[in-house]
Amino acid sequence: KVVILSLLMYPVLKSLALQLHSAVTGSYISGTHSVAFINCLNEQIAKDIARAIMDKKLAACVNILPKSSALYFWKGELEESTEILLLVKTRTSKIGELSNYVRSIHPFEIPEIISLPIDQGNPLYLKWIEESVPRD
């Protein structure tokens, strides 16, 4: 039982140790923040979703990238369209809430909402993300 409990507690203890180390040294813990990618049909929808994300304080920043061409399979057919892409910078711990919220307001049946953890970056920018997005 002690071995099982130790194995179950390891991720929690490791996380706490990393947070303590980060607090003491001021170093960034890789993966603390993420960039989410969200596709939108047009610029107005993109702006509306970006503003809604910011109003809910689910991100520090949302970039709206101009039209791009997309090729994809939908219901067995090859489709081609133009899309607007949102780049959302946020805490990794907010990705689930962000995804649920965007799905609730997005007009697509299956919107693209994917994220990648931020490994490293400008420490001052990463600190700004931390300060801009409430923990919970």
From TrEMBL:
Q: Tell me the PANTHER family matching this sequence.
A: CUTA DIVALENT CATION TOLERANCE HOMOLOG-LIKE (PTHR23419:SF2), DIVALENT CATION TOLERANCE CUTA-RELATED (PTHR23419)
Q: Please report the name of this protein according to its UniProt entry.
A: CUTA protein
Mention any Pfam family matching this sequence.
CutA1
Q: How does it assemble?
A: Homotrimer.
Q: Where is the signal peptide?
A: 1-17
Name of the gene encoding the protein in the UniProt record: Cuta
The entry sums up its family as follows: Belongs to the CutA family.
User: Annotated Gene Ontology MF terms?
Assistant: copper ion binding
Q: Single Gene Ontology BP term? A: response to metal ion
Provide the organism lineage as a comma list: Eukaryota, Metazoa, Chordata, Craniata, Vertebrata
- Tell me the organism: Semnornis frantzii
Family annotation (InterPro entries): Ion_tolerance_CutA, N-reg_PII-like_a/b, N-reg_PII/ATP_PRibTrfase_C
What UniProt keywords apply to this chain's record, in alphabetical order?
A: Signal
